[in-house]
Each structure stands twice: as structure tokens, then as C-alpha cells.
Amino acid sequence: MELKSIKKIGVLTSGGDAPGMNAAIRAAVRAGFYYGLEMYGIYRGYEGMIQNDIKKLDSKNITHVLERGGTFLKSARSDEFRTKEGRKKAYDNLKSHGIDALVVIGGDGSLTGAHLFYQEYGIPAVGLPGTIDNDLSGTDSTIGFDTACNTAIEAIDKIRDTATSHDRLFFVEVMGRDAGFIAINAGIGSAAASILIPERKTPVETLVEKLKSRTKARKTSNIVIVAEGGKSGSAQEIADKVKKHLPYYDIKVTILGHLQRGGAPTSFDRLLASKLGVAAVEGLMQGKYDVMAGLINNKLVYTPIVKAVVGDKEVDEEDLRVANILST
Amino acid sequence: MELKSIKKIGVLTSGGDAPGMNAAIRAAVRAGFYYGLEMYGIYRGYEGMIQNDIKKLDSKNITHVLERGGTFLKSARSDEFRTKEGRKKAYDNLKSHGIDALVVIGGDGSLTGAHLFYQEYGIPAVGLPGTIDNDLSGTDSTIGFDTACNTAIEAIDKIRDTATSHDRLFFVEVMGRDAGFIAINAGIGSAAASILIPERKTPVETLVEKLKSRTKARKTSNIVIVAEGGKSGSAQEIADKVKKHLPYYDIKVTILGHLQRGGAPTSFDRLLASKLGVAAVEGLMQGKYDVMAGLINNKLVYTPIVKAVVGDKEVDEEDLRVANILST
Amino acid sequence: MELKSIKKIGVLTSGGDAPGMNAAIRAAVRAGFYYGLEMYGIYRGYEGMIQNDIKKLDSKNITHVLERGGTFLKSARSDEFRTKEGRKKAYDNLKSHGIDALVVIGGDGSLTGAHLFYQEYGIPAVGLPGTIDNDLSGTDSTIGFDTACNTAIEAIDKIRDTATSHDRLFFVEVMGRDAGFIAINAGIGSAAASILIPERKTPVETLVEKLKSRTKARKTSNIVIVAEGGKSGSAQEIADKVKKHLPYYDIKVTILGHLQRGGAPTSFDRLLASKLGVAAVEGLMQGKYDVMAGLINNKLVYTPIVKAVVGDKEVDEEDLRVANILST
Amino acid sequence: MELKSIKKIGVLTSGGDAPGMNAAIRAAVRAGFYYGLEMYGIYRGYEGMIQNDIKKLDSKNITHVLERGGTFLKSARSDEFRTKEGRKKAYDNLKSHGIDALVVIGGDGSLTGAHLFYQEYGIPAVGLPGTIDNDLSGTDSTIGFDTACNTAIEAIDKIRDTATSHDRLFFVEVMGRDAGFIAINAGIGSAAASILIPERKTPVETLVEKLKSRTKARKTSNIVIVAEGGKSGSAQEIADKVKKHLPYYDIKVTILGHLQRGGAPTSFDRLLASKLGVAAVEGLMQGKYDVMAGLINNKLVYTPIVKAVVGDKEVDEEDLRVANILST
Fold first, then answer.
1. pLDDT tens across A262-301, in order?
2. Is D63 part of the contact surface with chain B (CB cutoff 8 Å)?
3. Considering the domain boundaries, does residue C324 fall inside one?
């Protein structure tokens, strides 16, 4: 066991930012201090690791960041880290600081990077699931997902005011390139007439039938939630198709876009990020390498990164069943 | 004077909905009750007037509506009201209910309708400025404008989290087809790098220069606010042009869209709507017809509708000057 | 099995209101319609059952209630329902409407009422956990708890602005008469210096030592979260005691109070309430009587009411451990 | 004229913090940079001036502060600044940094300090009205007032959920020691049954009569807003008195307290603070000393500090009249 060897941990965020990343950084750093470790911030993800944008963190760096969206360590894409040469530079920089382990917060690409790096250079890393998309296995919920769902429903609540005032049909596009998790939560939470997700193909005819039957039931306003990565097309494309079938309808499209990534994290995400941040450091201290820390059934679980990023997380059939009952 | 004749007042909302419309309806209805009048809700604007969708209101109808976005009287376009026949039907319906005056809450088109109707049929009407665009003269602020500005900055605050985390350039399109009021308030309120409004032409070169100079000053993230009706094109079009000049920049576009219309009204809009709702009824009782009630320098003013809708409200030069100083 | 017999279900809310109650009512009613049942609203809880304040619900009653705090069916205490005579009246009223089953949404007292009623009169009932306190067994989270935690942290985020600006010590009292769930979530989520909960006794000396050690670590502002039912006294009492030990400190007390009960439910509570509302009706149809529907590890579970209300739900030791690490 | 002499400006916040203070600091500092001046942050108000807690500010210090509540320059009471010796020390420190003018953001006490200091040492100062209480003359609205009103109505909206669900009477105490501005805005904005302000004495009997008459009109829930400095006593005291007259009523009291001071500033406060921050620096450059910058009827006005702090700002009679009509 190399447990004794870990004295300096580097923390980085990578990929799309997610609310709660700051809370996770803070928890990891604070846990490090609790156990007498030195903690380093690696700025702008792997790119900063290559550029040697690395600074020792003290207590002041993590004051009043818990409640802020985004990531104060910043995030960036790094094409260079995909090359052998890039990773060599990154490794050399870590060694120059004496950093002997990593906490990597991000989505599947970011965690895969940590895995590769561990394979090549033996730098122990614990990954944390930081993405609003909730598309990582090994945890019931990723850091940022709950906040994104709340941002979405708050926006849709506002759109509903207008939909209802004008008896309109709104198509609202939410984030989720490969996964319908936000769409399902936001759809059930906003009494959507229909929810279109990447995991299921919904023919336009089916959607049109549903909207017609709701009109008969005198539901005069309707909101349809579309996950951006849906197989049936973008919200605008689907709206255009529906318009042909329902020409008398006043149809509008709103794309929530990047505002779903930001904002103060919710209570749930703060708690999740706090627990996982501590778990990342404790995991490293216990020799748990090349894993992602997550909460499953509210229990801490370390899953090998290769399993976490495999992309087999499925939407809850029960959620879809309930969504259907409630929108009929 | 026909003051004694007013015993039954009809209230309607028309055009795009705006937060605070419900508060204005409530205030008018409650003021009517205070003065012993009968109050009628005309649903779905002029269309409902033609369709005779008119109901007597009681205290219960206006309970817990003050704080809600949208309009519980609903709003709709009415092509038929643009015809002589349509207006004749509308008049007959009003007479059948004995309604002898109107409170019309909406934007320039809605108020112009009230003016025409007064010219043709002598139905006294007081208009209230209900639109998020703030493009009516005769009032410093329209009902809904303050809420829309706050909705915009709250959304942009979230977008900034991502912009900062990734050192990105965001173009955010806000509402304002003919008027840059929301753009200016949201732009100053969100530390925008630049604000593009319909009233001013900003060459792409000027914008690019500004962004370059800010990059030199090491402002790594930038937000540009674009009013939807801007002469320089949509946010997406401008972004595309800027991208050609600054190809290395990571540029994103977000269109806030209809969520700016909804939401619980702010304190300011509740107070404004409450005062104007009372003023509408008191104005009618005092024989002030064919006018719009507004607040100028916090004093109640009745402006002839024809003057209010003329579209000559100008943006505050001082605001533009301050915006420039703060973004340099 | 009496499965076929259920044709009319009465829904009521009872006890302190909680955000998401409306979403749960809506889901139950909508599920009832889906299965072809008649649904009745029993207003003001058991009191309304005795007063025969019972109305058949249609689709319109549950439009736009999902996103609203409180309960449109209202809630009330009922001393009379504690008497045999009261319950007899209540039963007679149910029978007069032909109501043959109940969905009861509320806390332990409300569910116990449903249990008693089932024992005495055989009226099948499924209870739903509707309380911000999260003190019911048989579900990981009660409806309203997540919203209350978010309301608390949003308020504390604001208080922190002042605490930090003035280097002050704030005692913030949150709800939780017998349970520290809100206090723990809000405490971790707001980087509290200490969290005082009913389940643990924290001597003032321990608290004072912690505050002193934080001062040494130059954490100049501090927030202490106190659950209202804490054994160590109210927030004000504890503040007064601490003041004696730390007279130089500028100490303030804020009691969040009833605002924690209200507000639009969060995404989590909307989803939870929606799933449980459907589960209540489906449970009754499947002959699951005298039980509470809950979600444990995201799976639907029906727990006998007598077990759900026993009050043995424990705070998560891991949460307390993490809270301690993060505040040290 | 000493216009040329101003090259280094110190900025401080003093007294109770208010949302928008950061936006005002940022605007002043940015305007200073625009005009080529050096800008200094004086931390913890006059206390920091005495302790020489003064740092030169650069662009980075004011990045992402606009949208944050509180004041990053911090605020503190200073008993020592009330002494000749204290002010002498403060002056010496300013001179040691070469600071030749001040921007002072705060309430009446803070501005009076700037006035005294100018009288004694000739240090030019422009004050900015930074207080949620809106009790300064020379400006229609103080920085922070609009945000505080919005915070209050958002909290009261939540309390109303519970009030309505239980048919309760709530007394909500808002800030305002000498002034009823927040109470009036929050009261009208939340459909309060009655508003008790320091400027008017409301006998308990009058309040009880109003509540009785509303009960007759079947308004089953009621909210009474009480400004903390009301002549009729605290919210709790008034509630206790009312309880004696209306023993059957379920009465609750909530004190909003310090959460009214914090939070992200509203659009209005960001714009106001931005304009006044620029005006402070430009005023100093134009030789406007010993004045407070404010906006009256949306025009920039410099008022002698001695006039601004005199405490003669009156509540709007029209607001009170409207409040009465709407609550009857």
C-alpha cells in the first residue's frame, strides 16, 4: 500500500461547468486540511496542468465559494492532453510541485482523462461526477443535476404564465445531449403535455394525437419538453412539424440553453458535493485509485472510472409511466 | 359631465402578457368595489369582448392573483376587432351587460384599440401601460418592465458563471423589438462588455475592437447583450460575424425568449400596478377618458392615448454614457 | 379482495402545510381520472370531513396548482376528530358522498388519524408523507423537506452577506421540533460553524471552543444553525449564553420561521409528490390499506402507517461526520 | 478650484450593509480607472481608516462583485472615529497613501462622518446613499432599498401560502427603525390587511376593527406588516394585543430580520448603484465636495450631506391612500 505517500493533492475541474463544483472543491480542500495534507488548485483543468497553472491553496481560497455556481478553478478543453507529449508535460508539472494524487471533478471525458493518466503515470486519482446531465453510472445523481432541474422548472414556470395567458403551445428545449434525465424531471415537475428524450423515439404523429386529445379535454395551454439531443430533432424542428398538423395553434419555442449550467447550487447539490469532496480525499488516503466516488441509495460507493463512464445509465421506467399518467 | 353614469366597468388585458397585469386588474377591481361599482372581467381581450366572454367579478376572483405572472383574464390577438363589424359586436356585448366604461391593460396596440373604440362608440376607457418593453410614453416605467429586467439579470448571472468558468464570450439576446430599455438595464446590471440596442447602430468592427481591448485588459470572459430588434441583426448573426474576426474565441449564444414575460412581479411592478389600477377607476369616475394612466417622476399623470402610443420614448443618454464608462 | 369496490376517493391535507402538497393532490386526482375514478376534495382536513366540506373535483380544480406552495384543499386542526362523535360524523359524511377510500397527506398526526379511522370504520386509506420535517419513517424524504432545505439555505446565503460584511456571528434558527434534518442539510449547505440538533446535546462550552478555534484560524464570520427543538435551547438562549463567553463578538439571531413552509416546491419535491400521488391511488386500487407510500432508495414502498409514524428515523451519522470535518 | 489635485480616491462602506454596495464600489473604481485615477479600498469603514487597512485596488478586485450582496470592503462600527484622536489617525493614514478624496457609501451616520472629516481636515468626499431603509433625503431611493423590498415580498409570498392554507393571521415584521418605506412597499405588494409604520400611530382598536370587517367579507387569511420601529410596538407585542380581542384567531408572528439586508441586488439597485458610483468620482473631479449623490426624478442631484441626513424624508401619502383602498 502506498497510503503513506500521499501528502499533496491537486484538485481540478474539467469539461462543462456544473453548479456544486465549487462546493466539491471546497470540501476536498477542507478535508485535505483536516487530515494535514497540502492542497493544490490546478486551474483550467488538464490545460492548466500542462501550462503549469498550479497554485497551492489556503483556507482563504475556498471561503464563500460553496454557494457559487461555476468553478473558481475554471475549466477548459485541452486537445494537448489527448497527446502523449501533453500528458508528459502535465506529469512533469505535477512532479515539480510534488503533487502525488488528484481529485478530478467533471463528466465522462474528464474522468476518462484521469483514468488514462493513472494508467500511464500511476498518479492516483479519485474522480467526482460533476455534470448537469446525470449521465454517469456509479452515482444516483451527479453534482449539478438537481440544480439544473430546478433552474429548468423555474424557467418553465415563467413560460407557463405566458402559455396560459395566451392558450399557447410552447416547446421548451432543455439540456441533455445523450440523456433525458433533466427533461423527465423538468417535464413531470412542470406538468408537461409530453416529454421527448434521446432514449425514446416519439413519432410526431403520437405527439400530435396527444395534443389533440388534450385540446378535447379543454387543456388550452400545453408545454412540451424536448431534450436537446432528442432523436426526433431539435425543439424548433419538432415545432415546425407539429405546426403542419395543428396550423391553428399558436406555437412558440424557447431554448433554455446555458443558463441551466449556472446558478447557486441547491441544498441537495451542496450536500452531495460536500460529501463527495470529503470522500475523494479519504478515498485517496485509503488507496482507492482510478475510481469515481458517488452516492448510491445514499451510501458512498467507489466505482472504477471505466465502469462509471460507460454510459449505460438508464432513465427510470417508473418516471416515464408516471409522466404518462399525469399528462393524459 | 357624465361622471354619474359609470356604474359598471369592464376590465381586459390585451397583447403580450406582462408581470403585474394581475396586480393591475386586482387593484382596479378592488377600487371599483371600494367605490361601490360593479366590475366585469372581459376574458381574452378584445376577442372575448366580441365573443361575449364576459363575467361579473367578485372578491374571490381577485384573491391571490396579485403575486402571479401572466393574466388570469387571459389575452389574445383579435383580427376581428380590427373590423367595423367586430367592434360593433363588441359594443353590443358591452351594452348587453350594461358596461359603461373600460380599463384596458396592454401595450400600444391594445391602447390604440381602446382609443378607436372610444372614438366610434363613446365608451370611456382608461388605458394602463402593461408591457415589458417600456416603450410607451406617458409613464417612466410600464407594468412588467422592472420584472423583465430582473428576470434577465438573474438569467445572465447564471450564464456568467459558465462564461467565467470557461473564459467564454456569450451573446445574450433579450426582448425589445423596438426599444433597448431591457437591454440597457440588463447590460449595466450584468457588467456587459457591450450593449446593442435598436436605437443605435453598432458596427461589428466597433464591437470587435472593444472585445479586443478588453482581452488586452485581461478581462477573460465577456457578455454582450443584444436587444432582439437590434439593427445589427440577431444575437446569432452578430456572433457569427464576430467569430470571423475573433476565431480563437469560444463563443456561445443564448436567447432568453419568453421566460422574460413571466414570473411573479417585483415589488416595484406590484406597487406601480396597484397605483395605476386604482388610478384607472378613479380616472373614469372623474371623467378622464381616452387616456393612459402612468407615473412620471412618481406622480400620477393621465396622458391622451394617442400621445402615449406615439413611440417617441427615448433611452436615457446618461445610461448609455455610464454603460460605456463601466465597460471600458 | 375489495379491489373492485373503490370508485370514489376523497383526498385531504392535514397538519402543517408543506410545499408539494398541491403536487401530490394533483397527481392523486389525475391518477384517479386516468383509472376512471371519481375524486373528491375534502377541504380543511378532518375538520372539513366533519363539517361536510367536501366537493367533487374536476380537471379544472387541479390546473396550475402543481407549482404552488401551500395546499388548495387547505388544512386545519380538528379537536373534534379526536372524539368518537366527531369521527362518526366524518364517516357519515363520507358515506353520504359514496366515498369509499381516502388519500391523506400530512405528518404523523394526520396519518395516525387515517389509521384510527380505518380501524374504526374500515375506510381504506393510503397516507402520503407531507411535512417539511422529514420525521416520518418509510420514506427517505418527505414531501416538502427538500423545498424547506432550499428555502433555508437561500435565506442563510443572504444572512451570510451581512455576516461576512461585518465579521459577525449569526445564530439562525430553522424548523425541526424533534428532528435535525433541515438543520443538518442547511448547515452543511451553508458552511455553518456548528449545527445544533434535537438528537444531540451540544454543551455551550463545546460550541464556544469551536468558535474560538475558528477565530484563531481567522474565520471572521460564523453562522451557527439551531434546530428549533434543540435540547440546548432556542437560538436566542444559546446566543445569550455564548455572548457571556465571547463578549467581544457582535452576535445576531434570526429565526427563519414560517417562511420555510411556503414557496413553490423544488424539482425534487414535485417529482416525489407526483410519484407518491399516483402511488396512493394505485395502492388503494391494489388493496394496500392503512399504509403510507414512500420512496426508499428511489423505489416505491408501502409501509404500515403505525410503523411510519413511530418516530425512529435517525439522522445520518455520515452527514454529521462530514459536517464536522468541513467546519473544522 | 482644486480639481486637478485629485489623483487618488479612497472608497469605503460603512454602517449596515446594503445590497448594491458592491455595485457602487465597482462603479466608482471603474470610473476612477476610466479617468486615469488611482483607487484605494479602505476596508471596514472608518475603523479600517484608523487601522490603516487600506489597499490599492486593481481591476481584479472588482471582478464579479457587482452581483453580490454585502460589501467586499466590509463594514464596521468605529467608536474611535467619533474621537478627535481617531480622526487624526485616520487622516494621517490617508495622507501616507496620498489619498486626496473619499467616496463614502452608507447611511446617515456614515455620511455624517464624511462631513465631519471634511470640516476638520478638508478631505473632499462624495457620499452615496447605501442603506435599505430609504431614509435619506436627496435621493428618491437609496441603494439597497429596492432589493430589500423584493426580499420582503418574496418571503411574505411564502408566508402567505401557509396563511391561506390554514386561514391564519400573520404578523410579519420588516426592517425600518424610523421609516415605513419597506413596510409600505411590502404591504401593498403583498396585499396586506394592514401596514403599521413608525410615521403613523395605529390604535389596536382600529386594527382589530379592520380585521373584523375583513372576516365579515370572508377574507379568511390576513397578513399584517409591521415596521420594526413602529410606535405601536413590535410585531409580537401587537399580535399579543390583537389576540386578546380576537381570541379565536390562529395568530403567528414572523420577524424577517437580517435576511432583508443580503442577497444579490435587483436590476434597479444595480443601475442606481452604477450611476451613483460614476457620479461620485465625477463629482469629486468637478469639485463637488461634502455632498451626497442621488437620483431625484431620475436626474442626478448632489445634495449637501447635512441636508441629506436631516431625516425629513416623508412617506408618500398617495401610497397610504392606495394601501387603504386595496385592503378595504
1. 999 999 999 999 999 999 999 999 999 999 999 999 999 9
2. yes
3. no
B138 and B177 in a common domain: no
Candidates C17, C100, C133, C290; catalytic one = C133
Q: Does the CB of B140 have a partner CB in chain D at under 8 Å?
A: yes
Residues paired with residue A225 on neighbouring β-strands, in sequence order: A172, A195
User: What does the pLDDT read at residue C231?
Assistant: 78
Report residue B301 CA to chain centroid gap: 18
Three-state SS for D78? coil
pLDDT by residue for chain B (328 residues), tens only, comes to 445 589 999 999 999 999 999 999 999 999 999 999 999 999 999 999 999 999 999 999 999 999 999 999 999 989 999 999 999 999 999 999 999 999 999 999 999 999 999 999 999 999 999 999 999 999 999 999 999 999 999 999 999 999 999 989 999 999 998 899 999 999 999 999 999 999 998 899 999 999 999 888 777 789 999 999 877 889 999 999 999 999 988 899 999 999 999 999 999 999 999 999 999 999 999 999 999 999 999 999 999 999 999 988 999 999 999 999 999 8
Question: Which of B133, B146, B269, B290 is flagged as catalytic?
Answer: B133
Using CB atoms within 10 A of its CB, is residue D297 exposed (0-12), middle (13-18) or buried (19+)? exposed
Are C67 and A157 a contacting pair at CB < 8 A? Answer: yes
Chain segment A312-327, per-residue pLDDT in tens: 899 999 999 999 999 9
Q: Give per-10-residue mean pLDDT for chain D (328 aa).
A: 75 97 98 98 98 97 96 94 96 97 97 97 97 96 98 97 93 93 97 94 93 82 91 91 92 95 97 98 97 97 97 93 95
Residue C174 is placed in which grid cell? Answer: 430553522
The subunits that touch chain C, with at least 3 C-beta pairs less than 8 Å apart, are A, D
- For testing contact with chain A, the best of C60, C156, C218, C267 (most A CBs within 10 A): C267
Chain B residues whose beta carbon lies within 8 Å of the beta carbon of residue D264: 154, 157
Residue A305 has pLDDT above 70, yes or no: yes
Query: Which residue ranges of A make up the annotated binding site?
Result: 16, 26-30, 77-78, 107-110, 131-133, 160, 168, 175-177, 219-221, 228, 252, 258-261
Q: Does residue D324 sit at the C interface (CB-CB below 8 Å)? A: no
Residue A10, in any domain of the structure: yes
**Residue D47 and residue D124 in one domain:** yes
Count CB neighbours of B217 within 10 A.
11
Residue D323 lies in a domain: no
> Taking CB atoms and an 8 Å limit, are C218 and A59 in contact across chains?
yes
Q: Hey, is B93 helix, strand or coil?
A: helix
ipTM over 0.90: yes
Sign, CA dihedral C163-C166-C171-C174, equals: negative
CATH of the domain at B188: 3.40.50.460
Count of domains forming chain D: 2
Rounded to 5, what percent of chain A is helix, strand, coil? Answer: 45, 20, 35
- Whether C202 and C296 share a structural domain: no
Q: Which domain holds residue A190?
A: 146-261
**CATH code: domain of residue D82:** 3.40.50.450
Instruction: Transcribe A184-224 into DSSP letters.
Output: HHHHHHTT-SEEE-TTS---HHHHHHHHHHHHHTT---EEE
| Cβ-Cβ contacts under 8 Å, A19 against chain B | 161
Q: Mind telling me the catalytic residues of D?
A: 133
Subunits that touch chain B (at least 3 Cβ pairs < 8 angstroms)?
A: A, D
For residue A325, the chain C residues in CB contact (below 8 A) are: 30-31, 34, 278
Q: What pLDDT shows up at residue A222?
A: 92
SS3 of D137, please?
A: coil
Domain assignment present for residue B42? The answer is: yes
CA distances from C190 to A65, B52, C234 (A): 10, 55, 20
B-D CB pairs within 8 A amount to: 126
**How near does any CA of chain D get to the CA of B226, in Å?**
17
D136 and D239 belong to one structural domain:
no
Calculate the CA dihedral of residues B181, B186, B192, B194 and round it to 10 degrees: -20
Chains near D with 3+ CB pairs less than 8 A apart are: B, C
D229 in the same domain as D96: no
Name chain C contacts of A67, Cβ cutoff 8 Å. Answer: 153, 157, 160, 190-191
Q: Tell whether D39 and D130 lie within a shared domain.
A: yes
Task: Give yes or no for a contact between B232 and B208, defined as CB atoms under 8 angstroms apart.
Answer: no
